Amino acid sequence: MGDAARSGDSQEHTLSVIIPVYRGERHLPGLVAELAPLTETQRTPEGHPYRVTEVILVNDCGPDGSAGVIRELAEGRPWVRPVWLSRNFGQHPATIAGIASSSGDWVVTMDEDGQHDPADVGALLDTALRERSALVYAAPRNETPHTAFRNTTSRASKLLINMLSGGDADATKFHSYRLVLGEVGRSVAAYAGQGVYLDVALSWVADRVTTCPVTMRSEGDRVSGYSVRTLVSHFWRMVMTSGTRGLRVVSLIGATFATFGVVLAVVLAVDRLAGGNVPEGWTSTVVIVLLCSGLILYALGIVAEYIGVAVNMAMGKPPYLIMSDPQAGPLGRSGRGT
User: CA of 118: how far to CAs of 49, 97, 111, 313, in Å?
Assistant: First the structure.
């Protein structure tokens, strides 16, 4: 594979690295220093040439001195590009802002805290070209360096999202260390609406999503910027943008209640005719309650479906995405034919 890649992949892949910055005052200089060698032409483990042409630092208005550090890092480094947000918007909006400002063939997103090793960028690119995938997530070989409670709840929430999305998005693959085809990433950044969860938006248009094994590094003494309230808000955003399948549960519950009401009415009527001891008025009350509540829930489910369609439109979920010929773009530089 290496020789074929070297002979058939002579055109260099350009990468834009996006780093949303909230509390990066202490960690940014070291991370940028690690990325500096990648601004010269490198070869992936399988022989594909690539180069980081820009490192976009998105200042998300954190409480520390990150803004000053970003300015210092940009001095004398033309490949370091600051992006200034007007206020704190959160990790996903900041990442989307960085993607919208990028220009590389590929976009790499990573955290500011040093958990993500820049040396794995080549392996991510190899996976994308080998699997012809427009979206590659890092798949940690080791346990993510968070508390056991946070790791457990994170896995449980992703499984719940998979159920709600109906298989449209595999949330178990979601990770903030990701490689995205630039054309896809910038298109998503262009149409993504307020409150959209980035990975869900990417799943709307990415034809093939793969993962690449990496080893996560420790955060060191950095205090996580995610409180319980922030994590719950993060989870709820993922729920709200994962599709309308959850709304259909309302219709299903309503139909179940109504059906149970009809069955119960038949059972009680037969029992009464057979001389059973059914309290006066109890049958009609229970049947009416079940039928009415079922019909109300079913009607609410229908209304919710219409709201879901409106929400999808408001979030900017596209009916389609027009792209150039993949063989003529970065995915065609894999050293093999279609």
Answer: 16, 21, 11, 36
Q: Tell which phi-psi region holds residue 19, choosing left (phi > 0), alpha (psi between -120 and 50) or beta.
A: beta
Task: Tell me yes or no: is domain 2-237 CATH 3.90.550.10.
Answer: yes
Q: CA geometry: angle at 310 spanning 308 and 311, to 5°?
A: 60
Residue 5 has pLDDT above 50, yes or no: no
Record the pTM: 0.73
Here the tokens at position 182 are 């630039």
Q: What are 17's strand-pairing partners?
A: 55, 108
- pLDDT for res 305: 67
pLDDT single digits (tens) 163-181? 555 555 677 788 999 999 9
Determine the straight-line distance between the first and last CA of the chain, rounded to whole angstroms. Answer: 15
Length of the chain counted residue by residue: 338
**Per-domain residue ranges of the chain:** 2-237, 245-315
